[in-house]
Design a protein that fits this description.
Elements (H helix, E strand, L loop, with lengths): L2 E2 L1 E4 L15 H14 L3 E5 L5 H13 L4 E7 L2 H11 L5 E8 L2 H8 L3 H16 L5 E6 L6 H14 L3 E6 L6 H14 L7 E6 L6 H10 L4 E4 L13 H10 L1 H4 L1 E2 L7 H12 L20 H9 L19 E3 L5 H10 L6 H17 L3 E2 H12 L8 E9 L7 E8 L2 E8 L3 H13 L4 E9 L8 E9 L2 E9 L2 H25 L3
Parallel strand pairs: 1-10, 2-3, 2-9, 3-4, 4-5, 5-6, 6-7, 7-8, 8-9
Antiparallel strand pairs: 11-12, 13-14, 14-15, 16-17, 17-18
Helix pairs in contact: 1-2, 1-11, 2-3, 5-6, 6-7, 7-8, 14-15, 16-17
The structure holds manganese (II) ion.
Manganese (II) ion binds next to loops.
């Protein structure tokens, strides 16, 4: 193999910090299993001390996911390191990732520490982690805005203390490629023990340079890249895994560096993450966007028909886009359904498989052709939500609307197991439904976003509704799918309300 870059996936940690992207434990385990199939080297499964949910996600992924190193984030605090280890100890290959800032801006205003104090703390925490395991990563947060001499000193000290990976974050997405590449060279030239650790980078996309900066770092000696599926993450997001991987693969002629990623799993993973988080991929997104392989120009189409390489630098099959998207119909059996689910990244228990298959049969009666997107919507709607306790449950919904009537919704629901019925008006059927449900559930939340997507083509397509609700500092995403978009809307709203209830309770149990 040519020179090799480790892929450190942080979709479940930094990616989850995308506003509204929070995932439940079951969803995280499903994504982690898919990341293992994709062939990532390291999965950052969460930040164990941040909440009981994160702790449990790290613990379960440590026990249930085979292949990659499993990592937990920990601040440079004793209790964080201890908690990370407690969550990780079932993993065959555990890693603790600890961090403290090294920039004067952060040390002065946020950490209220001197440079010496921060360095001392970093060394102590790396030692603490090494007391538990051999694989310890340290990040000097805001490295790209830190004084380089001090940065070199800290890196040297943590490597002496036992850090095996040093990760250089461009925390605020401020660096430009030439500068960031030079920073990596500076570290190699000025940190005497640097050959004892792997240099990693973690770039944010505030100026749209996360991938370019990561690549500049790799070209100058970094051998681990931290990235996320679809580039999701805090603010403008992180470096996108699929872009990094396909750049290295497509231009190996000049880069001579590769990853261990199974590129055919890129597209299924992208779809899985966007379906679970509700964060859609922009159509013109490199590699995984809907239009990434769509050629519109007549001249290009002509060339492609004669010879694919005229306008195609990558083959869609190489990232796992199937040639035919039509998969199933009314006559498809349980076995075919199960096989297709597996190909899409879902391995369900028998009980969940039965539930999903029943729903599939109902849908197959309503629409002729069932596409992958329909199957994903069924799993999202039927299975992934079971873990959130359902305080509110939709029973029946009837709507009157049209050009000559006042839109009216009659809603029947179970609230804490009790059957309730209510009717209300609105300026449209969705408004009438939402107002009625809000009245019944006494919801105080604000609707930040409402969007409806036809999951596939055709007027018989399922509508998938995504809503974003806010109450105090909680933002949640709700989703619902149905061939009737008003029913899908009600389901999405109720799903979000259930998540809000769950979040409010979880907050009370939070450790920090
Ligand atoms: Mn980050």
């Amino acid at each position: 193999m040519t020179d090799y870059v480790r892929i450190f996936d942080t979709t479940l940690r930094d990616g989850e910090q995308s506003p509204g992207a929070s995932m439940n434990i079951e969803e995280k385990v499903i994504i982690a299993k898919q990341l293992a199939r994709l062939g990532v080297d390291i999965i950052e499964a969460g930040f164990a001390i941040s909440s009981p949910g994160d702790f449990e996600a790290v613990r379960r992924i440590s026990h249930e996911v085979e292949g990659p190193i499993v990592c937990s984030l920990a601040r440079a605090k004793l209790e964080d390191i201890d908690k990370a280890w407690e969550a990780l100890k079932g993993a065959p290959k555990p890693r603790i990732h600890t961090f403290i800032s090294t920039s004067d801006i952060h040390l002065k205003h946020q950490f209220r520490m001197t440079r010496e104090e921060a360095k001392k703390r970093a060394v102590e925490m790396v030692k603490r982690a090494r007391g538990y395991l051999d694989d310890v990563e340290f990040s000097p947060m805001d490295a790209s805005r830190s004084d380089v001499k001090y940065l070199y000193e800290v890196i040297e000290a943590v490597i002496d203390a036992g850090a095996t990976t040093v990760n250089i974050p461009d925390t605020v997405g401020y660096a430009i490629p030439s500068e960031f590449g030079a920073l990596i060279i500076g570290i190699k030239d000025n940190v005497s023990n640097i050959n004892k650790a792997v240099i990693s980078v973690h770039c944010h996309n505030d100026l749209g340079l996360a991938v370019a900066n990561s690549l500049a770092a790799v070209m100058n000696g970094a051998r681990q890249v931290e990235c996320t599926i679809n580039g999701i993450g805090e603010r403008a997001g992180n470096a996108s895994l699929e872009e990094i991987v396909m750049i290295l693969r497509t231009r190996k002629d000049i880069l001579h560096i590769d990853t261990k990623i199974v590129s055919e799993q890129i597209y299924p993973t992208s779809r899985l993450v966007s379906s679970i988080t509700g964060i859609m991929v922009q159509p013109n997104k490199a590699i995984v966007g809907d239009n990434a392989f769509a050629h519109e120009s007549g001249i290009h189409q002509d060339g492609l028909l004669k010879e694919k390489t005229t306008y195609e630098i990558m083959r869609p099959e190489s990232i796992g886009i199937a040639q035919s998207t039509l998969v199933m119909g009314k006559h498809s059996g349980r076995h075919a359904f199960k096989t297709r689910l597996k190909e899409l990244g879902y391995e369900l228990s028998d009980e969940n498989l039965n539930k999903a298959f029943e729903r599939f049969k109902v849908l197959a009666d309503q629409k002729k052709e069932i596409f992958d997107e329909d199957i994903e919507a069924i799993v999202a709607d039927e299975i992934l939500r079971i873990e959130i306790p359902e305080r509110f449950k939709l029973d029946k919904l009837n709507i009157v609307s049209g050009t000559d009537s006042t839109p009216t919704a009659t809603v029947e629901m179970y609230i804490d197991g009790k059957h309730v019925k209510e009717a209300g008006f609105g300026d449209g059927p969705v408004d009438a439904t939402y107002k009625t449900i809000a009245k019944m559930t006494k919801a105080k939340s604000k609707l930040l976003r409402y969007s409806v997507n036809a999951i596939t083509g055709g007027t018989d397509a399922q509508g998938e509704v995504t809503v974003r609700l806010q109450e105090d500092d909680h933002v949640v995403l709700g989703q619902g799918a149905h061939t009737d978009i008003i029913v899908a809307s009600a389901k999405a709203y109720i799903n979000a309300l259930n998540k809000l209830e769950y979040k409010k309770r979880e907050k009370k149990e939070r450790v920090i």
